[in-house]
Design brief:
Layout: H1 2-29, E1 35-38, E2 41-44, H2 45-93, H3 98-103, H4 106-116, H5 118-148, H6 150-157, H7 160-197, H8 199-205, H9 208-261, H10 266-306, E3 332-340, E4 346-355, E5 360-364, H11 368-378, E6 386-391, E7 394-395, H12 401-407, E8 408-412, E9 420-421, H13 422-426, H14 440-451, H15 474-485, H16 491-498, H17 509-528, E10 535-537, H18 549-554, E11 556-558, H19 564-568, H20 571-579, H21 583-600, H22 609-614, H23 618-630, H24 641-653, H25 656-659, H26 665-685, E12 690-692, H27 704-709, E13 711-713, H28 720-734, H29 738-742, E14 749-750, H30 762-771, E15 777-781, H31 789-802, E16 807-812, E17 823-828, E18 831-832, H32 846-859, H33 869-877, E19 880-884, E20 889-891, E21 901-906, E22 909-914, E23 920-926, E24 931-932, H34 934-939, E25 946-949, E26 953-958, H35 960-969, H36 971-985
Parallel strand pairs: 5-16, 5-17, 8-15, 15-16
Antiparallel strand pairs: 1-2, 3-4, 3-6, 6-7, 9-14, 10-13, 11-12, 17-18, 19-26, 20-25, 21-24, 21-26, 22-23, 22-25
Helix pairs in contact: 1-2, 1-5, 1-10, 2-5, 5-6, 5-10, 6-9, 7-9, 9-10, 17-28, 21-23, 21-24, 32-33, 35-36
């Protein structure tokens, strides 16, 4: 409303800018007397002229300021609406079912939220004001013209209906041709990509001329379309401009006639011409607005269609906070649960079960798809198409999402991780809402977010709330987290990983003091073990090959690790090196090192792990190589200062041990001499950047292990590095520092999707994240799948000790000791085999029933049990039932494998190799669940053995094309098949 008020206030001043020029010409300049009466005041002609000109200037200034204010408010409105739209789409996306993301790419969602919505922001700001502003300006100008003369007004509007009818139609034709052009350009892009990939084949087989002819033809099609667009576009412009200029023709002819006849004044005609000139701008803006509105409506339909999937969580269950958060430590009841996939095919059918509170539940589900569906049903990630889930009589689908997040924990072997720190990911369940007082900055940010329809929860607030886990403070929470992490038995691995954490000046005081105290004991142990030659100790009298040049020069370490790019910004550091006379030597060293690295990696090998280990920036390395190629060979004296610094960052970033022989002993000795003369002064000068190395204090920027050793382990230590790590960890544990060291892992930075986190820590992180809130229900999806029964027993024992009242549900495959569970269920092909209703056949057509029998037969085998339903149906569709009586030869040696592979369902068959004479040698006997003949399909070679039925057998014959498609596109099946093949060779 404020924006509309400002827009409306603009029109009187616009009218004044049109009226005053006429008054200036007629009443001031064209006055017939030297004295003029104005509002009862008598003024001279010059004074009246000055007054009108001042009013005109004031009107123009006010009009301009109002327009500037309106445009600024439009910009703010546009950005707020765009922010609101994006926030709304993202919050809506967080309610989508997981199954939606399995068939929709993340890139497509990101592109829609960012790129597709960007033009909508400007349109949202214009949606309210643009038609009012432009139409208002147009009406103001028309009113002015009609007041001067009815004929002027009629002349101004006479051709507007024609433009309003003709221009949009021509524009629509141009839009259609543009769509056709985009389609042809995509075809051209596909052809270019294909040509680039097959350039060698085109040269070898002589097809380049024909290919170039095809491309030329496609370019011609694009040219013809663009030519038509140009014709239409410029014809439309010609028509529009002609119609626009036709009106002044009427003004000059009819208006001139009226002036000559004395019907209107000359000033009125001049003002009318000026007004009409201003009339064309708002009219064009209105036409442009119309075209943009049509385009945005199409974009909006596309976005809303993509962001309205079925099965999304009800917004009311995620917005705000629930009135109460009931405990879910009650009986869990599943009644006739049926779940379907996106295509309407059943995944789970008629699942019914009851789990008592605090019980240990085991559900044997071999199928990955079934297990995932069951986990998602229990966490309400998907809703069943039929049946109900209740907890203590309360339907799960009516609970607020915050209740589910607080009371139900879920952990899988492959958790989804987020960029941030290790602790951020673990403590996510305890950051449900901000707590504590807010700063003024946080309050201001919350107010702006609320104005844009975004979350009013300020990010800068305190989010971590130990009370959600029933704990008092952060210290108790850390201890609780450590005890959870130890449940998986990975405490030792986590401890050793924490030894590599970098320390800072703000690290725990107790840990820092403990490390300094333990240094003598650690070194005694290292010497006693004969490992001292693998450690480069920090000695002020010796050059340390494991430290960079700058650290050796100052006998200090960087307080915070820096990238090469950040180091290049430390100009004062290289100014000190220049004063000490090291610039020439470092530049020469840089040239040798860059040349060596270029020989090893080249500019296209900078993604290699060994290159990344050096810590050099790939882009700066490529620039350095290019620089030395063009200028460096003739000398570096004339290089710009920035280029010299870039080159010197190489030896300043990596160590002599990494550089190798190129780092001469003379250079090392020279740096030592400079250290002896200048180190104290330099340390003071660069104290904000470097921390001196001293035995009685911690070195920030170095790891716990390096601080404990007061040195760095040689890159050539090999297996002895592990021995040193083990030795140091044992001494620190004896000193009572293990817990303090492990706590450092809490701040371990995780990259996007947690790609830098070792796999061994994924399961412990997932479990601790699920259990840190002390849930009433804990769902463990295939945890410890690769471990033996004793590991699972130990996990259950520790969890029961830490969470005595929690209902723990294990989803897995082939539990060795089902008797350990209070409740044990088995689900096969989406049905409970232990339930009466689980064995009932589904009433269906003959074709569907036959397909279902094949699917269930394939799913019952170890090799194909991990396939999802769609892949199984594709495989089953191409499979044929096969039966053979005892004694029949199913295939013979040297037969082509065109008949496919055989999955034996019942009976036994012998694989034998015919001798050169009339005998044969039996190689193996195969039974139910065995796949035979797959190697011939994969290798596309004749059969190497014959197969004969020993008993009556029933089997499924798998088509070659369908089987190979599964092997090519399903990694799990390929891995299982590889295991089977490996068994042939053992």
């Amino acid at each position: 409303m404020v924006l509309l008020a400002f827009t409306t206030a603009l029109f009187p001043f616009l009218y004044l800018t049109l009226e005053l020029p006429k008054r200036i010409i007629n009443d001031a300049i064209g006055a017939q007397t030297s004295r003029i009466d104005f509002l009862g005041f008598e003024m001279t002609q010059i004074g009246f002229l000055s007054l009108l000109c001042a009013f005109f200037l004031l009107s123009v200034l006010t009009h301009g300021l109002l327009k500037m204010r309106i445009n600024t408010m439009k910009g703010v409105l546009s950005e707020r609406m765009l922010r609101r739209l994006r926030y709304g789409l993202i919050s809506r996306m967080l309610r989508f079912p997981r199954s939606y993301f399995r068939r929709t790419s993340q890139g497509e969602m990101v592109a829609m939220i960012t790129g597709e919505t960007e033009p909508m922001g400007g349109m949202m700001g214009d949606a309210l004001t643009q038609p009012v502003l432009q139409a208002g300006q147009m009406l103001t100008i028309l009113v002015f013209l009609f007041l001067q003369s009815v004929w002027f007004g009629l002349a101004a509007i006479a051709l507007i209906p024609l433009q309003a009818w003709l221009i949009p139609r021509l524009q629509r034709q141009i839009n259609l041709m543009n769509k056709e052009r985009i389609k042809e350009v995509r075809h051209l892009a596909s052809m270019i990509g294909e040509s680039a990939a097959g350039a060698g084949e085109l040269r070898i087989h002589g097809g380049w001329r024909h290919r170039l002819s095809m491309i030329s033809d496609r370019l011609g099609i694009v040219f013809n379309i663009r030519f038509k667009i140009y014709q239409k576009k410029f014809f439309m412009k010609f028509i529009n401009n002609f119609i626009t200029q036709l009106t002044p023709f009427f003004f000059f002819s009819v208006g001139g006639y009226l002036v000559i006849q004395g019907a209107v004044s000359l000033g009125a005609l001049v003002a009318a011409l000026a007004a009409y000139k201003d009339l064309s701008s708002p009219w064009k803006e209105l036409l442009t607005y119309y075209n943009q509105a049509q385009d945005m409506s199409l974009r909006w339909e596309t976005v809303t269609e993509k962001f309205s999937p079925a099965g999304a969580v009800d917004a009311a269950l995620m917005e705000g906070r629930p009135a109460d958060a009931p405990r879910l430590d009650q009986t869990i009841a599943l009644e006739g649960i049926t779940v379907q996939d996106f295509d309407g095919n059943a995944i789970l059918e008629n699942i019914s079960a009851r789990f008592e509170p605090g019980s240990l539940v085991g559900i044997d589900v071999p199928s990955d798809e079934d297990r995932r569906a069951l986990a998602e049903v229990l966490t309400r990630e998907i809703l069943p198409v039929s049946g109900d889930i209740t907890i203590g009589g309360q339907p799960l689908d009516t609970l607020h999402q915050e209740v589910i997040a607080a009371r139900i924990g879920y952990a899988s072997a492959r958790p989804v991780l987020f960029q941030g720190s290790f602790g951020d990911n673990v403590m996510m369940p305890l950051k449900q809402h901000p707590v504590g007082d807010l700063t003024e900055t946080a309050k201001a940010a919350a107010e702006e977010a609320a104005a844009a329809g975004n979350s009013h929860d300020p990010l800068e607030a305190q989010w971590l709330d130990p009370a959600l886990a029933g704990l008092k403070d952060d210290a108790e929470l850390r201890q609780w987290w450590l005890s959870l992490f130890d449940v998986m038995g990975q405490g030792g691995a986590l401890y050793r990983r924490a030894l590599d954490q970098k320390m800072s000046s703000t690290s725990q005081t107790a840990l820092s003091a403990g490390l300094i105290k333990a240094r003598p004991k650690i070194w005694e142990a290292v010497v006693a073990a004969g490992l001292e030659r693998h450690v480069f100790r920090f000695d002020p009298e010796r050059y340390n090959p494991a430290l960079p040049v700058a650290s050796n020069l100052f006998f200090a370490t960087m307080r915070q690790p820096m990238t090469q790019r950040e180091l290049a910004g430390q100009t004062e550091l290289f100014e000190v090196m220049r004063k000490l006379g090291l610039e020439e030597g470092l530049l020469d060293l840089s040239k040798e090192v860059i040349d060596l690295l270029n020989q090893i990696f080249g500019t296209d090998g900078t993604e290699h792990p060994l290159f990344r280990k050096l810590g050099l920036d790939p882009e700066l390395f490529e620039r350095s190589v290019a620089l030395l190629r063009t200028q460096g060979r003739t000398g570096t004296d004339l290089l710009p200062e920035a280029d010299k610094i870039m080159l010197m960052t190489v030896p300043a970033q990596i160590s002599a041990e990494q550089i190798g022989p190129a780092f001469s002993a003379d250079m090392q000795q020279r740096i030592l001499e400079l250290r002896q003369r200048n180190s104290m002064g330099i340390q003071d000068e660069l104290s904000a950047l470097y921390s001196p190395l001293r035995p009685d204090q911690i070195a920030p920027g170095l790891s716990v292990l390096e601080n404990a050793l007061y040195g760095k382990i040689s890159d050539g230590a090999g297996a002895r590095a592990d021995d040193l790590r083990k030795l140091v960890s044992e001494v620190l544990e004896q000193e009572g520092l293990k817990s303090a060291v492990i706590e450092l892992i809490y701040d371990l930075p995780l990259s996007l999707s947690g790609e830098n986190l070792p796999t061994i820590f994924a399961e412990p992180l997932a479990l601790s994240r699920a259990a840190v809130k002390r849930p009433d229900i804990l769902i463990l999806d295939k945890m410890l799948a690769g471990h033996d029964q004793s590991a699972l027993d130990e996990l259950n024992s520790k969890l029961r000790h830490l969470l005595p009242q929690t209902t723990i549900i294990h989803l897995g495959e082939g539990f060795e000791a089902p008797e350990q569970f209070d409740t044990y269920l088995e689900i096969r092909q989406g049905r409970m085999i232990s339930s009466d209703q689980g064995t009932a056949d589904v009433e269906d057509g003959a074709a569907s029933a036959d397909l279902l029998r094949k699917v269930r037969a394939l799913e019952s085998t170890t090799l194909f049990s991990g396939l999802n339903r769609k892949q199984l149906r594709l495989l089953a569709f191409g499979a044929k039932w096969f039966s053979a009586p005892a004694g029949d030869v199913i295939f013979s040696k040297d037969d082509a494998p065109t008949d496919g592979a055989y999955m034996i369902l019942s009976g036994e068959a012998a694989l034998f190799k015919p001798d050169d004479g009339f005998g044969e040698t039996e190689i193996a006997t195969v039974g139910p669940g065995t796949l035979v003949g797959e190697l011939g399909l994969i290798r596309n070679v004749p059969r190497v053995l014959s197969m004969r039925a020993q008993t009556d057998i029933d089997a499924l014959r798998l088509g070659a094309e369908e089987f190979l498609a599964v092997v090519e596109h399903d990694a799990a099946t390929s891995f299982k098949l590889l295991q089977v093949v490996a068994g042939y060779t053992s």
